[in-house]
Structure formats: structure tokens, C-alpha cells
Amino acid sequence: MILEPELTWTGARFERGVQIAIENGVITDVGQLGHNDAQKLKRRALLPGFISAHSHAFQRALRGKGETFPEGAGSFWSWREAMYALVQQLDADRFYDAVRATFAEMLAAGITTVGEFHYLHHSPGGNDHLFDEIVLRAAKDAGIRMVLLLTYYKTGGIGQPLAPAQQRFSTQSLPDFWRQVDRLDADHLGIAAHSIRGVPLDEIAPLYDEARKRGMVMHMHVEEQRREIDECRTAYGAMPLQLLNERLSSCEGFTAVHATHSDPEEMGRFLDRGGNVCITPLTEGNLGDGIPDLSALRAPSLGTDSNARISMIEEMRWLEYGQRWKSETRGVFRGAAPLLQAATANGARSLGIDAGAIEKGKLADFVAIDLDARAIRDVDESQLLEGLVFGGGDDVVAEVWVSGRPARRTSSSGGKPPR
Predict the structure, then answer these.
(1) Residue spans of alpha helices (H) in 125-184
(2) Do 271 and 241 touch, CB atoms closer than 8 A?
(3) Predicted confidence band at 84 (pLDDT cuts at 50, 70, 90)?
(4) Which backbone phi and psi does 167 adopt, to 5 degrees?
């Protein structure tokens, strides 16, 4: 198949007359190829497919349930109780419906790949890992590319057993966890350590070392809330990111999610050792966690996290807006191109996949923008990306391709989970 959009994003600008050759889901050539049989995409601007590097798909079912917090309660900790209540209600059918609806909505917003940070493993009252299979099935049925980040979750707090509401997250030991990893039939598989409160400190480095031995990426929630940081300091005498820098053999292939309260100097050390960072502006704002200091950050990726609002265009916009509010980081993103990079290529690097750019050898994942969409139809071609990021919404998304195939974007229903 050969596509020829009216405009194609080539990494620095939109260009006309570009043709994209695709075979077996991979881009085999890009440029002024001169093919007469190309499929013309009139009034379409083609971008690499958006990548959400951090998602908890089932949490979309919390919309409207965790938005109002008891007086005097911290937003995250009150929201967490609402999440635990939801978990108790999710059987196999409801879980499948929730995550399938999330993936369908992602496709409608131009997201072609999701990094699913998955920790709701078990059926109610069970220890069966059934929900690991269900999330794989839901992604396949929806037609989205998923990197399943199977999550190790052992403690309910630093030095604390799992609470009753957390039992369905349980991974009892490292050997048991790796046996479950080996049982899964997933095209793209990585791992995650839930957090410094969810995984004993002495088990984080062994998790990382085994992941790297297997060629897998590893993700972890890091320094999302001040309360967790205070508990970590009390228990270990240091902040989580400092502990990771001291204990991990390197940080290659490791993504710290959030880093909302990270020290810039420690962050610089983490990045120098090969680490990645994923920011989730809409969820961090929704929960009132705070605005990260990105003065030391290079090439962040973006995620939709709780999926209270699924829009990578808004994630890009608010990543930049948040830094405008902080005098020390104002101007850290100059123009829209670095924001698009965060929503595409940086996410691909974080998830360890060959995607995120319209280049030879990359996966043929695209999002087509409707040039006649109301929000951008009067924007000059030379400023189209800025107009899209700072003035557009998901209604500008016209079509989506995953592995060179048009994705199903109109329905979130269908199919039943495995039994």
C-alpha cells in the first residue's frame, strides 16, 4: 500500500507530495516516490500515531465518581478510595467493557499505541491472573497496539501488607511474577514496579536486572505525591529517585512516571544514566498532584493515566501550559514540535517499540488530521502544527491506521472476555 496525504509531517515540518510505502505493517519507503497508484488522502495532514505511554484503562470507569473529594481530604488519597471501591465492583465482564471502551476512545483521539500499566490482575476473591488475559483480549478486539506493562505489586505501603482492597493487585513473589510473564501471549510486553510503596526496595533492582536481561522496558510511579515521598524519607532516608539512581545498575529502559516532585539535580543524574520520564498533565491536574519542574528534563513522553479525559492534543497543550506557570521553566518547550515529539517518538522510546515517526523501518501507525475541521481550517500551513496543538481538539482526527490498517474507531462494544 502507498499513501499520499495532502500534507505529511516529516519530523520538522509538513511537506506536500510525500508518499509512504507500507508492507506487512511497516514503512518501507518515504519521500517523493513517484508512484501513480498511491492512495490519495485529500484534505488530510498525516502525523505519526499518538502514543500514550502510561494508562490504567479500567480507571475510565471512575468518571464522575472520584471528582468530588471530602472536605479537608487530599485529592489523590480520596480518589484512591474511590478507585478501590470501583475495583470491588469489577467482575470479568465489567472489566472487559471498561478497558475496551477506553481503548476505543483512545483510537478516536488518534492514539495508536498505549502502554498499559496493568495491576488489576485477579478475579474477585481469586488469585488467577484472569484479568491479565482480559486486558490483552480487549486491546486486540479494539484494534489498538498495546504494550502490556505487567505490574509487580506486593505491599500496601512501605513495610505494610496489602490491604483487603488491594488483594486483587497481588503479585506474591518475584519467581511467581516471572512465571506469569512467561505464560502471557503478548506481542509487546514490558514490566512495571508499581511504586516505592507497592514494591519492597530490595526487590526493585532484581526486577530491573531481569527485565533488561530479557530485553524488556520497566516503568514505575515515582514521586507522584509528597506524602509518599515523606514516607520514603522516613523509611529509607532518601527520596525515591535518589534510591533508584543509587541502586539500579543503570537507568536504560527505565521510565519514571510522573516525577511531579522530583529534584532537578537528581533528575539530571537519572537522565544521564539513560532514564526516561512520562508526564501525565491531565491526570496530575485532575488529582491536584502539582506541576513538575521540567528544567532538567529532556525528551519526556506523555500518558493518559487515569483516562478521566482522553486527548493527547490536550496532554501536549497542558504539558506546555504548566511550564508557563513556573517562572523557572517558562519557555522549556519552544514551539509545538517538541510537544508532538513527546506524544509520539518519546513514547515509542519509553515503550521500546519502533514507532513514533514517519520514517523507513518504523511501524505504520498514523493519525490523519482533517484540514477542513473548524478549529484549524483557517490556519496557515506553515503554522498548522501550532494551530493543532494550541487550538485543536479530538474532532480534528479523521482517520487512524495501526500497522498500516485503518483502525476501528466508531464503537466501544462487542466481544466477551475469555472465561
Answers:
(1) 130-142, 174-183
(2) no
(3) very high
(4) -60, -30
